[in-house]
Automatic annotation (TrEMBL):
Transmembrane segments: none annotated. It comes from the Bacteria. This is Cytochrome P450. One of its GO terms (molecular function) is iron ion binding. It comes from Microbacterium keratanolyticum. Belongs to the cytochrome P450 family.
Length: 389
C-alpha cells in the first residue's frame, strides 16, 4: 500500500533553527507522512493532529514520547509518558496546586515578582532578553513552587535542555544529552523529602506517595516533570514575545493601548512560535488518519508547531497579529496530556509583558542567536535595548 513519504531531515542545525519550510512540506505531503530518514511518522496538519491527540487509546504515550529508546527508558513513568488510568492518578497529585483557584491565589505574588524583575532588568540599560529577562523568572517562580533545594537550582536549566534533546532521533545532539538526563533522575532521587518546603509541589508529591495515592517510585519522575517542563518552555515564549514585538512595533503599541488584548496576544505568541515543536506517540492499532493508514506499532510525531501554522486552519498563518486570539492553538498540546502548567506559564508571561508595557515604548534588538534543541525551539541570546516610555 502506498502512503505519503518524505526524505527530509528535521534535525540539522539549519532545520532546527528554521523549521517552518520542513513543516510546510510535511503538511503538503499528506495528513500523515512517513519520514524515511528516521523511520517515523509525522502528523502536521491541524485537524488530524488535534484528533490524534484526543485519541490516546490509539496514539499511546506509554512507550515514551521521544524518538530515542534510551531516553524513553529513562523517562518511564513520567506523567507525560503514561496513559490513563495511571496518567490520571499522577496528574491528580498537583491538580489542586495548578487549578484556576490556586493560580488566582498566587497571581498577586507573581505580578509583584514580575514588576521587581522588570525594574531590575531595565535598570541595566541594554540587556539580553533571554539570559537576563526571560530565563531567571520561571527559574525562580517554578523552583520556589516546586520547593527544589537551593543547591540543585544551578543545574536545572542544563537538565531541562538535555531532557528535551535526549528524546531526539539517533544524532549526536541526542546521545550527548542522555548522560545529563540520567544525572537529573539520579540527583532528584537523593532529595530528602522531609526538607521540601511545606505547601510546595514537591512536598505534595511525597505526601501523595505516603498516603498511598501514588507509588513511591513515581515521586522522582513527577518531580522531574514539573522541574523540566516549566522552564525552557516559558523562557522560549517570553523571549519570542520580545523578538516579535521588536519586529512588529505596531503590535506592541496595540497591546500597550489596550491591556485587554494581553491574553489573546499570549495565545498568538505561542501559536506563532510554538515553544515545544513536537512530542511523539506509538500507535496501539492501525490508525486511519484522514485516509492514510498508520500501521499498529508505529512511532508518530505530533507536530504542534506545524499544526499552529497550518494554512488549512489559520488565515495567513505566518502573520503575527495580537487581534487574532487563536484560543484553539496546539502549543500546549490537547486533551489528556494538554499542558498541566499552561495557566502558570500564561500568568508568568503576561505578568512580565504587563510590567514591560507600562515602562517600554519600543524594543530594539540585535541579532538573535537560536538555541538548537531537538524538541523545543527558542533563542540562546537576544541583545535588546528598551526605549523607555
Ligand atoms: C509556554 C510554556 C509551555 C508550553 C509551550 C508547554 C507545552 C506543553 C505541551 C505541548 C505539552 C503536551 C505534551 C503531550 O502532548 O504529550 C505539555 C505538557 C505538560 N506540561 Fe507544559 N508547557 C509550558 C509550560 C509548562 C509549565 C510552566 C509547567 C509546570 C510548571 C508545565 C508542565 C507540564 C506537564 C506536567 C505536562 C504533562 C501533562 C500530562 O502529561 O498530563 N508546562 N506542555
Amino acid at each position: 500500500m502506498t502512503h505519503p513519504t518524505l526524505d527530509i531531515d528535521l534535525f540539522t542545525d539549519e532545520a532546527l533553527a528554521e523549521p517552518f519550510e520542513g513543516y510546510r512540506q510535511i503538511r503538503e505531503a499528506g495528513p500523515a507522512v512517513f519520514l524515511e530518514r528516521y523511520g517515523v511518522w509525522a502528523i502536521g496538519r491541524y485537524e488530524p493532529l488535534r484528533a490524534a491527540l484526543a485519541d490516546w487509546e490509539t496514539f499511546s504515550s506509554a512507550q515514551g514520547i521521544g524518538l530515542s529508546q534510551a531516553s524513553n527508558r529513562t523517562t518511564k513513568g513520567l506523567i507525560i509518558a503514561t496513559d490513563p488510568p495511571e496518567h490520571d492518578r499522577l496528574r491528580g497529585v498537583l491538580a489542586d496546586k495548578l487549578s484556576p483557584r490556586a493560580l488566582r491565589g498566587m497571581g498577586g505574588w507573581i505580578r509583584e515578582q514580575a514588576e521587581a524583575h522588570v525594574e531590575r532588568v531595565l535598570a541595566q540599560g541594554g540587556f539580553d532578553a533571554v539570559t537576563a529577562l526571560a530565563a531567571p523568572f520561571p527559574v525562580q517562580i517554578v523552583l520556589d513552587l516546586v520547593g527544589l533545594p537551593q543547591e540543585m537550582r544551578p543545574k536545572v536549566l542544563g537538565w531541562a535542555e538535555a531532557a528535551f534533546n535526549a528524546g531526539g532521533p539517533p544524532v549526536p545532539r541526542t546521545f550527548e544529552a542522555q548522560p545529563l538526563l540520567e544525572e537529573q533522575f539520579a540527583m532528584l532521587a537523593e532529595i530528602d523529602s522531609d526538607a521540601l518546603a511545606e505547601g510546595s509541589f514537591g512536598r505534595a508529591i511525597y505526601d501523595a506517595a505516603a498516603e498511598g495515592k501514588i507509588d513511591r517510585d513515581s515521586c522522582v519522575p513527577l518531580m522531574s516533570a514539573y522541574v523540566t517542563a516549566g522552564l525552557d518552555t516559558t523562557i522560549n515564549a517570553v523571549s519570542a514575545a520580545i523578538q516579535l514585538f521588536a519586529e512588529h512595533p505596531e503590535q506592541w503599541d496595540a497591546i500597550r493601548a489596550d491591556q485587554s488584548l494581553m491574553g489573546g496576544a499570549f495565545n498568538e505568541i505561542v501559536r506563532h512560535q510554538s515553544p515545544v515543536s513536537w512530542f511523539s506517540r506509538v500507535t496501539t492499532r492501525d490508525a486511519d488518519v484522514d485516509g492514510v493508514v498508520i500501521p499498529a506499532g508505529s512511532r508518530v510525531m505530533m507536530m504542534y508547531a506545524s499544526g499552529n501554522r497550518d494554512e488549512r486552519k489559520w488565515d495567513d498563518p505566518e502573520r503575527f497579529d495580537v487581534h487574532r486570539n487563536p484560543v484553539d492553538h496546539l502549543a500546549f498540546g490537547y486533551a489528556v496530556h494538554g499542558c498541566a502548567g499552561q495557566g502558570l506559564a500564561r500568568l508568568e508571561a503576561i505578568s512580565l509583558l504587563q510590567a514591560l508595557s507600562t515602562r517600554v515604548a519600543r524594543f530594539e534588538i540585535g541579532t538573535p542567536v537560536p538555541r538548537l534543541n531537538n524538541r523545543i525551539r527558542g533563542l540562546a541570546s537576544l541583545p535588546t535595548v528598551a526605549v523607555r516610555a
